């Protein structure tokens, strides 16, 4: 299983960073390998990704979401994928965004990419892209302030 843990400080207030991250359908604007994300409901997303030339589709479920704190998810079919992103106030205008991502490589290309640290580099690139995206806008493209309690 490939694991990536990355953090980045973004020069926007915590609510702005969090609110933007809840706009899942905007992910292709800053995540290079994400072709599309379709929100099917408050807890369910359909992803189309292209990694190393291989296209994959899968659904994820939001397993926990607390405004301005965290969003956690896991795949429910297809690719084995899970993650959590947390938000930490550094000061009034700076937020630390921390991402942990776990995924299981499937097929030869993904296994080679896993061995070469592809997931870690992609996560780092996407976090930098998120920083550039949100800082250049200064405001979020939308917000979802709902709560998804952790089950179990």
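Q: What amino acid sequence fits the structure above?
A:
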């Amino acid at each position: 299983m490939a694991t990536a843990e990355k953090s980045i400080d973004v020069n926007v207030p915590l609510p702005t960073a969090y609110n933007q991250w809840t706009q899942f359908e905007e992910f292709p604007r800053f995540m290079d390998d994400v072709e599309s994300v379709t929100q099917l409901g408050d807890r369910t997303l359909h992803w189309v990704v292209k990694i190393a030339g291989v296209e994959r589709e899968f659904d994820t479920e939001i397993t926990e979401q607390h405004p301005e704190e965290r969003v956690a998810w896991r795949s429910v079919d297809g690719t084995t994928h899970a993650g959590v992103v947390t938000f930490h106030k550094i000061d009034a205008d700076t937020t630390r965004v921390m991402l942990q991502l776990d995924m299981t490589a499937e097929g030869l290309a993904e296994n080679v990419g896993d061995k070469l640290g592809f997931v870690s580099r992609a996560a780092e690139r996407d976090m930098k892209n998120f920083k550039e995206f949100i800082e250049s806008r200064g405001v979020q493209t939308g917000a979802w302030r709902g709560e998804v309690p952790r089950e179990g």
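Q: And what stands out in the fold?
A: The chain has a mean pLDDT of 89.
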